[in-house]
Amino acid sequence: MSSREEGLRGEETAIKTLKRRGYKIVERNHRNRLGEIDVIAEEGGCLVFVEVKKRNTPSFGEAVCSIDERKKRHLVRAALFYLKTHRCSDRSIRFDVIGIDADRIKLIKNAFWVEEHG
């Protein structure tokens, strides 16, 4: 299985997990000029930007640990651009992460945040 196929499989698992937990999926694989957002969803009145990471082996640590400060900045920029272009800057937002390590799924709500987005 290619890494792209593996990634898509991970995203499918993440989508199923989010739906089971009451998230409403708004968009998948959103791309704009500032980056890509794996999943955009709504949950508890919040617009949630979800990053999905999958690892098949524990050699390099948990999947959620692979999201460094650089990646977080890219996600925040892409999310803020999304808010601006979709005219929803007044929405409450949150950044969640789903890590998939082999068959274990870990959802971290409020994995990181941005102070101001208006």
Keywords:
five-stranded mixed sheet; Trna Endonuclease, Chain: A, domain 1; 2 helices; about 120 residues
Could you provide a short overview of the structure?
Helices cover 30% and strands 39% of the residues. By secondary structure, the protein is of the alpha+beta class.
Give the CATH level 1 class: Alpha Beta
Shape, per Cα inertia axes:
globular
Mean pLDDT: 86
Instruction: Report the span from N to C terminus.
Output: 42 Å
Order of helices and strands: HEEEHEE
The helix/strand class is: alpha+beta
CATH level-3 fold name: Trna Endonuclease, Chain: A, domain 1
The helix content, as a percent range, equals 25-40%
Biggest pleated sheet = 5 strands, mixed
CATH architecture: 3-Layer(aba) Sandwich
Beta-strand residue fraction? 35-45%
Radius of gyration from the CA trace?
14 Å
* Spatial order of strands in the largest sheet: 1-2-3-4-5
Number of helices: 2
The low-confidence parts are none
Number of strands: 5
* Domain count: 1
What does this structure look like?
Helix content is 30%, strand content 39%. It has 2 helices and 5 strands. A hairpin with a 2-residue loop joins strand 1 and strand 2. It has a single domain, classed as Trna Endonuclease, Chain: A, domain 1 (3-Layer(aba) Sandwich). It has 118 residues and is an alpha+beta fold. The mean pLDDT is 86. The longest helix is centred in the first third of the chain and has 18 residues. The chain is globular, with a radius of gyration of 14 Å.
